[in-house]
Amino acid sequence: NITLGANIEEVGSGKLNLTLTANKGQVYTSTIDLGGGTLNVLGNTTVIDMGLAGVYLGSIYNIGGGSITGSAGGGPGIRLSGSILQQTGGTLNITGTSSSSTGILNYGVLSIAAGATMNVTGTSNTSGTGVSLSTSGTSVQNYGTLNINGTSDSGYGVNLATGAAVGNSGTLNITGTSSSGRGVYSNAPLSIGAGATANIKGTSDTNVGVFLNTGGSVTDNGVLNITGTSISNYGVHNNGTLNIEAGATALIAGTRTDSGGDGVVDTGTITVDLNGRLCVIDNNVASGTGCPSGKTGGGGGGGGDGGGAIGLVVIGGAAAFLMSGDPDLYLAAPDTLTGGSPVFWADSRLDTVTVDLKGGTAEAKLFTRSGHLKRQLKYTDNADGVNHYAWQNTADKAQAKLSVNPRTREYFYSETGAQSGQPYTVKAHGWLTSGQSGSQQAAR
């Protein structure tokens, strides 16, 4: 074993290059400041086991590159237990492997800046996590790059138990793979902004590829790409609150390869600002804005368990994720319109209603004594799970409003205006039918 119990600090303007090698033992350090020098560490406790980490590091500052390699039998391959692992330049490769525990277990902040590149690769051969970021968070700034790759047999490939902040043109790439665990599990807010990019990719055979349990925000020309693949489960499952703000872009793509259900499912909240862009690709079916070319529009995945398929609407200043297996809702039989002057509105009815959940539009056709009136309504917002659509005639100020609950398919229609100088209000209420209207709509 190699144990450095006291702090080590470079003094002056030089750089400290430090190499620690324990071919058959643990490397343990306290706080170290390298002043921009390199760090090369090798620890191996597979031969002595005892649950020890191969490499156990305290806080390390101003790393200018190098490598950290740890292998363990009963403990984590590498345990980063200090408050920070700070890299200020060069390339640092961190590789941890464990036979029965976590490949890399980090309790501090991973801080990458000044154009530095940190490559983190962790492997657990059993139920441990490949790479676990467990306490303080991750910061990638100033053109820095952090690449995280975690692999596990039955645990998480990568566990983001703390938040990640990526800004000032930094880049975060996360790849997690597991046979029966989640590929990537994110349980803390992601913050992507100031021209930064985060790419998250998760793969699992029987579990969720990427599971977002908290969400986060994408702002200020930030880019977030999430891609998940599973054989028999959701590719991507969002259970948090994700905000795509003005100038930001996000892509969520999920694939279930056994054709047994949805590739992407949402049981949380995803909102998009007026000038934000969000594309959702569910089993190669695209919805939203800024989607890659060649992807199919409209439609949705099959009937998986849990949240239901995602339908995306991005109109005006909001986006709503709609739990509906079909892209359309329609009125199967006319409903009576109530209110208004009997001279014009007697025996009137709401003849047809068609709602395109994917496209964010709706059409209502009213039957009156003077014939049919058609209203082309546009999606405005979603509140408490209810979609709102509106139409206005700028000439005579007539207005129509339609509210639809995609889950229950209940609707309310109202219209106000003036007929022959007399104000009127007419209303209708009922329930819509899911699916394509087909000949029923064409016949009326």
Tags for this entry?
2 helices, 47 strands, disordered C terminus, mainly beta, 2% helix, 444 residues
Describe this structure in words.
The chain has 444 residues and is mainly beta. The chain has two helices and 47 strands. The strands form five sheets. Strands 3-6-9-12-15-18-21-24-27-30-33-34-35 form a 13-stranded mixed β-sheet, with no helix packed on it.
Task: Kindly provide the radius of gyration, computed on alpha-carbon positions and rounded to a whole number of angstroms.
Answer: 28 Å
Shape descriptor: elongated
Low-confidence stretches: 296-327, 437-444
Q: Oligomerization state of this entry? A: single chain
Strand content: over 45%
Mean pLDDT: 85
Decide which structural class fits the backbone. Answer: mainly beta
The first-to-last residue Cα distance is 84 Å
Q: What's the total number of strands?
A: 47
Strand order of the largest sheet: 3-6-9-12-15-18-21-24-27-30-33-34-35
Number of helices: 2
Helix content, binned percent: under 10%
The main pleated sheet reads as: 13 strands, mixed
